[in-house]
Amino acid sequence: MTKKAQAEANQAKRAAYAEELFAELNHSIFKDGLPTDTKLVWNTRLLTTAGKAKWHRSSDGTRTTSIELASKILDCEGKRIRNTLSHEMCHLACWIIDNDSAEGHGSVWNKWVRKVTRYRPDIVVSTKHNYEIAYKYEWRCEKCSKIYGRFSKSIKPEECVCGACREGTLVPLFTTRQRTPKTPKTNVASPMAAEKGRGTCFSLHFRNAILQLQYDQILLFL
Length: 222
Fold this sequence. Notes:
Layout (H helix, E strand, L loop, with lengths): L2 H26 L10 E5 L7 E7 L5 E8 L8 H18 L10 H13 L17 E5 L5 E4 L9 E2 L8 E3 L29 E2 H17 L2
Helix pairs in contact: 1-2, 2-3
């Protein structure tokens, strides 16, 4: 079996597990109060949140519900899927069963959480997750050793430094291919890398601009 085929097979197992768990919890805890046609959507673009519940009521009264699950975070069967799916189902219960569309993580939501955990002690529902994410690419600061993770090679070590210590060079922890040097660009599109994954690096151009500004301010007082 190829690597791609294995990944697809594993994802199919995770999806089936989530569907079975939804049906079980909906019947046993929510008394079939959640729509049985609620779609469980596996989203590869969810990178910082493990799940997201959605509920919409159209002008004619039609309701649509879905739960998005982060395929890059919930990359294993079992605990992560159980905890995340239960969390989002509690949100749907607040909005649909209790008819409280403004409820977030308050008393109504916690009421459903307690019901879930009493029925399934192996499920832990919290307001935020702290799952370790398996990034495809990682860089380490050579000075403070902070690790930066991304799902693509979006960090350019030649254009930025560590966002934590503001000094260290970011060293890739993966094999890089040598490419023919390109003509240096005179303009930088963004002074700071987008904040996603573990940490944000700090642009060298931005740091140099700050140092120049501080130097100019010193000269004004001489």
